[in-house]
Design brief:
257 residues; 24 strands; 1 helix
Amino acid sequence: MRPIILNGHERPITRLCYNRDGDLIFTAAKNSVANVWFSANGERLGSFHGHDGVIWWLDVDWSTKNLLTASGDYHCKLWDIETGKQIEDFENDAPARTCGISFCGNLLMFTTDETFVEGKNKKSEIIILDKRDPSSLSGASPVLRVFSADKTKVTGAIWGPLNKTIICGHDSGALTVLDVRSGQVLHQIASHKGPVTDIQMHLHLPMFITGSKDHTAKLYSAYDLSSIRTYTTERPINSAAISPTRDHFVRRSNLEH
């Protein structure tokens, strides 16, 4: 298998993911621009400009129509993939760390970092909005808004099977599974010895992969967080993704100083 090197970001990559068909790869980096590439040859298809800070996370919907990005500039943005134009802009009271589009495409999830608001420490939050409801999109009536179940901030989050749960990775290395309706914690484990840097679901199977600064990527069951396999590398892992068409996964590592 011939490796393909993608050169298009001026600063370290923070996140990468495939679309459902596996023909496109979306990447985010600390240079405030998201890119989309053809996975077959590594050619860059286009870019998404509009953020004023680092893009920590991105997610593409099931039909490859919309892209959702979360940025340190306190904004989450919804994009039209075909045109590259911004559709919605969600402003938060804290830097946005992660985001995700539900399998049905109607629900938008994002998480925020810990921050100081009016002189008080505000914990990391998990927020879910409904695209079909204007009051929900404005933030007035969110589907769910809860604080992080772990003592540390959420560093990665994805939708669980059937949109019934949210699976979160934390700065402490822990993994938690939240019920979407109640916000209650269903499962929680100590997964990694370092911060979870990425978490991505398999397209067809109820399992997901995590990346961590502890030099490992791990496969878990999306139902009960049971461990499936561990991959060890020589460097901290920034991002990890499972191919939707082959028995492969791709990881992104950086040398840290």
